[in-house]
Amino acid sequence: xxxxxxxxxxxxxxxxxxxxxxxxxxxxxxxxxxxxxxxxxxxxxxxxxxxxxxxxxxxxxxxxxxxxxxxxxxxxxxxxxxxxxxxxxxxxxxxxxxxxxxxxxxxxxxxxxxxxxxxxxxxxxxxxxxxxxxxxxxxxxxxxxxxxxxxxxxxxxxxxxxxxxxxxxxxxxxxxxxxxxxxxxxxxxxxxxxxxxxxxxxxxxxxxxxxxxxxxxxxxxxxxxxxxxxxxxxxxxxxxxxxxxxxxxxxxxxxxxxxxxxxxxxxxxxxxxxxxxxxxxxxxxxxxxxxxxxxxxxxxxxxxxxxxxxxxxxxxxxxxxxxxxxxxxxxxxxxxxxxxxxxxxxxxxxxxxxxxxxxxxxxxxxxxxxxxxxxxxxxxxxxxxxxxxxxxxxxxxxxxxxxxxxxxxxxxxxxxxxxxxxxxxxxxxxxxxxxxxxxxxxxxx
Length: 445
Hints:
By secondary structure, this protein is an alpha+beta fold. It folds into two domains: 15-265, Fido-like domain (Fic-like fold, Orthogonal Bundle), CATH 1.10.3290; 270-440, no CATH class. It contains 14 helices and eight strands. The strands form two sheets. Strands 1-2-3-4-5 form a five-stranded antiparallel β-sheet. Strands 6-7-8 form a three-stranded antiparallel β-sheet. Strand 7 and strand 8 form a beta hairpin. Helix 6 (155-171) packs antiparallel against helix 7. The protein starts with 14 loop residues before the first helix and ends in a 6-residue tail after the last helix.
């Protein structure tokens, strides 16, 4: 499978990174083909899946733009055509117009013509609901909130770049579906051709590409906001890897949910529901423990920084969902299961960057917890010099330990070839100590 982004503003790293992208895209394509070959993607299953996800997709896409409407409120606004009390009427209108646009995406997907400017403007017009700027490229300069990127300033610059966007779409109609979806979405946000509605339109274009090729649509959720903005920021600099990774991760979610919709068509699984309830209780304890560890690490690092000139940046990501927790506990890898990131920089020394994420328990901890090993672990990654995937396992560069899991009110940690036990405060102090040792010059300690 050829992975080629020539003619776009993007790259996918070196040959190693490109091979990793190719493998990810091919694995997902084969999974879709297998579902169809097994006859699981029946019309009844698809109708069940799309009906269940329709209002979630609308609510989550609008939430990325600031809408506070829940999935239930969104459903009311769309089906009843009403304004939700206590909220700005504009949020209800946005739900209704995006619903019409997504219905149109389903209709447009039957036409296999490559996505072009005409289709783009048509969807934008529906999303903005006939407002004056609907379906019209902007003529004034815009700024993207929270981004350093400056989109093209003049109408001519916008048109020149959109012509390139359309030409690439037409000339690369046979490129891998996930790659096309990622390129057309990220590139559209980079150009920012409309005065409003670029994000919602970009996400609609992504799903038009996916559904047109026989894939289920994806949902980029409000909890993905930081991932999404970070990935688009990297793409503005030319590196598409993180955005491809985001799209691939959300496609895995869609395929998982689609498989479960197929299973439900065959009958209600009461044992699965009981397991889900029990795992939900365990998830609450896990999320609380991870948050406590994060705050402890931050407090320890701030204390260690003192009056040094160290720059410290820590960010906590949204917590795991029940579905993610179940998959991880049962030994299935979940993408984008990020817990928190730590970035430290001291002038004259290499920057230290570590991503804590939730993964599947390895053998040493399973052996220790032989009768209760069905639980996830925290692991560490460092930035990948090959660009894709954006992160790689830290292994010996893991602060605190290579794998860490909660056992009762303690943390069990695989470190230096042994399983050791720490209290939450002890583990937070150990992680901070390791990071400080790598970052802060010796005399300050």
